[in-house]
Amino acid sequence: MEVNFTCLTTKGLDISLAALRRQDPYINNIVDVASQVALYTFNNRTNEWEKTEVEGTLFVYTRLASPRHGFTIMNRLSMENLTEPITKELDFQLQDPFLLYRNARCKYRMCFIHTRAQVHTRAHTHTHCSSTALDKHAHKTVPNV
């Protein structure tokens, strides 16, 4: 898997890893970073995407405990970060420049990745992590909503 850390220096990665470990001590390695993402949720009543109060840097990482992969958006708008485990229950698909997913709680969410080049890298990383979580089983995708 190709890893793209162009947005952070080694020192920046070390600082970010330390911050992530304060939240989850089982995180052992950052495998990918998107410098600026915004999170949206799908409103079933209005059939529209709604912007949330979550915006910031997206970190994809490995863990020493199950689940073995996850991602966190370190929120710049508040102290509440978004964290999702990457498991076989996480379904996602790429609709450039968006990464859409449905989590284990069946909530539909969408990450708008501001840097176009980072969109495909994130999708590749999530696919790799999901494949690992599925133990080589078939990969599901989020239905178009």
How does this structure look, described?
- It is a single chain.
- The chain has a single domain, classed as Pleckstrin-homology domain (PH domain)/Phosphotyrosine-binding domain (PTB) (PH-domain like, Roll), CATH 2.30.29.
- It is 22% helix and 41% strand.
- The chain has two helices and seven strands; from the N terminus they run H-E-E-E-E-E-E-E-H.
- The protein has helices at 10-23, 116-133; strands at 27-43, 48-63, 69-75, 82-85, 91-95, 98-102, 108-113.
- The protein has a seven-stranded antiparallel beta sheet with strand order 4-3-2-1-7-6-5.
- A hairpin with a 2-residue loop joins strand 5 and strand 6.
- Its EC number is 3.6.1.62.
- It is an enzyme of class 3 (hydrolase).
- Its main location: cytoplasm.
What is the string of helix and strand elements? Answer: HEEEEEEEH
Q: Shape from CA axes?
A: globular
**What's the total helix number?**
2
Q: How confident overall, as mean pLDDT?
A: 83
What is the CATH superfamily? Pleckstrin-homology domain (PH domain)/Phosphotyrosine-binding domain (PTB)
Q: Tell me the β content.
A: 35-45%
The helicity comes to: 10-25%
Major sheet strand order: 4-3-2-1-7-6-5
CATH topology: PH-domain like
Radius of gyration: 14 Å
Class derived from helix and strand content: alpha+beta
- Biggest sheet overview: 7 strands, antiparallel
Please report the distance between the alpha carbons of the first and last residues.
Answer: 30 Å
What is the number of E strands? 7
CATH architectural designation: Roll
Number of domains: 1
CATH class: Mainly Beta
- Ranges where pLDDT stays below 50 over 5 or more residues in a row are 1-6, 134-145
GO molecular function: 5'-(N(7)-methylguanosine 5'-triphospho)-[mRNA] hydrolase activity; enzyme activator activity; mRNA binding
Family: Belongs to the DCP1 family.
Subcellular location: Cytoplasm; Nucleus
EC number: 3.6.1.62
